[in-house]
From TrEMBL:
<dbReference type="InterPro" id="IPR001841">
    <property type="entry name" value="Znf_RING"/>
</dbReference>
<dbReference type="GO" id="GO:0061630">
    <property type="term" value="F:ubiquitin protein ligase activity"/>
</dbReference>
<feature type="domain" description="SWIM-type">
    <location>
        <begin position="67"/>
        <end position="99"/>
    </location>
</feature>
<keyword id="KW-0862">Zinc</keyword>
<keyword id="KW-0479">Metal-binding</keyword>
<protein>
    <recommendedName>
        <fullName>SWIM-type domain-containing protein</fullName>
    </recommendedName>
</protein>
<dbReference type="GO" id="GO:0008270">
    <property type="term" value="F:zinc ion binding"/>
</dbReference>
<keyword id="KW-0863">Zinc-finger</keyword>
<dbReference type="InterPro" id="IPR007527">
    <property type="entry name" value="Znf_SWIM"/>
</dbReference>
<feature type="domain" description="RING-type">
    <location>
        <begin position="167"/>
        <end position="213"/>
    </location>
</feature>
<dbReference type="Pfam" id="PF04434">
    <property type="entry name" value="SWIM"/>
</dbReference>
<dbReference type="InterPro" id="IPR039903">
    <property type="entry name" value="Zswim2"/>
</dbReference>
<dbReference type="InterPro" id="IPR013083">
    <property type="entry name" value="Znf_RING/FYVE/PHD"/>
</dbReference>
Amino acid sequence: RKKRKKEDPDTPREEKRLARIRKSCPQNVLDRVERVLTQRFYLVDRERDGDELRETFKVLGSTGNIYTVTIDKVPACNCPDALKGNHCKHILFVFLKVLNVSQYSSYYYQKALLSTELAEVFNSAPAAPTVVAAERIRQAYATASTSASASAPAAAAKRLPQEGDDCPICYEAMPVNSDAGLVFCRSCGNGLHKGCFTQWAKTPNGRTCVTCRAAWPHEGAAAALGNGQGEGGEEEGAPAVNVDGYINVAGVAGISPVRDTSS
């Protein structure tokens, strides 16, 4: 009888996937991908967990609820569809639109990912708009600090979208070298869809630029937010936690809180 070979304690153990691997994309996931490609979603916020292979995203759902999507070894969302065990459209929106994972990749439909796969997803993803803005701010500071002019800083020039530039809210394409249908930040010069800014302005973060987080000019934010007052002096349709426990902005976002079950 052969003796069992002793394992070398210095040999790293092979990582185990926390769910069975999917060799092809299930039809129910393909159906949800179709919704992601045909419906508009809005990214409200995102937060990277330090150097960990983990990032959290706040996504505005179709009924006005703001859901939390977490991309780590087991991608998750707190929406009703995901809580039933499904790979929901909010997870798919983050993978396909925000992190720009290819539809030819097998990663976006897996129930669990390995550390190497997660690292590939994050390393290949486009930089978050706030990171890009920070680089531009440093360049602008370097230019300003060497300038002989001591005058107050003027509003930043509009940065017209280039090929491949997506709106930082819906992650859909913007018109190339055009300002049609866009609004621009006076601090960093970056643009986004006017309709998307209207939605963004109604969220808790909405009085700041999506890209550089500078305060948005009050008149622009106020115009997007509206000045209607409800009873007791509270803003009509103000964001609130609904009976399901989600932050809901349907009233201020101008969308129906009733779920569409037709697709």
